[in-house]
């Protein structure tokens, strides 16, 4: 995690599955994830991640794997700063608040809150369709 905290970008190549623990670790470290497939995070975690992935992550085509450093160096420092702020803003919704925390005083929704809100929304939409 220390390395991720010091880095601007954290590469998230595909692994055995599209979901990688490293993706969550990079967000929690405030490191901008660099993806090579939309399925790594963009299509799987819509409840937790903003709908405009270019604001908080970088997507590289697998054919660009030989130019990763060049591609990332083209991103202006101001844009890197904005993306890092967006990543830091995601941290609360990707973590769990302490079970004894006064939820009304937290000031943010944690991962459980996000899941419950989205599940409720989904159940209501199904109910209203029938």
TrEMBL record:
Keyword Nucleus carried by entry: no
Localization, UniProt: Golgi apparatus membrane
InterPro entries per record: Exostosin, Exostosin_GT47
Keyword hit for Transcription regulation: no
Chief place of localization: Golgi
Transmembrane segment boundaries: none
Keyword entries, A-Z: Glycosyltransferase, Golgi apparatus, Signal-anchor, Transferase, Transmembrane
Membrane topology: Single-pass type II membrane protein
GO cellular component: Golgi membrane
One Pfam family per UniProt: Exostosin_GT47
Identification of the protein by name: Exostosin GT47 domain-containing protein
Organism whose genome encodes this protein: Ensete ventricosum
The organism's taxonomic lineage, starting at the top: Eukaryota, Viridiplantae, Streptophyta, Embryophyta, Tracheophyta
């Amino acid at each position: 995690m220390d390395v991720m905290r010091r880095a601007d970008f954290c590469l998230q190549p595909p692994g055995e599955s599209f979901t990688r623990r490293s993706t969550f670790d990079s967000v929690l470290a405030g490191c901008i994830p660099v993806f090579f497939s939309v399925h790594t995070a963009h299509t799987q975690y819509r409840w937790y991640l903003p709908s405009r992935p270019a604001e908080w992550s970088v997507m590289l085509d697998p054919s660009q794997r030989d130019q990763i450093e060049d591609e990332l160096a083209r991103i202006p420092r101001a844009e890197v700063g904005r993306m890092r702020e967006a990543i830091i803003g995601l941290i609360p919704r990707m973590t769990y608040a302490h079970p004894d925390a006064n939820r009304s005083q937290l000031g943010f929704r944690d991962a459980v809150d996000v899941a419950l809100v989205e599940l409720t929304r989904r159940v209501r939409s199904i109910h209203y369709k029938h």
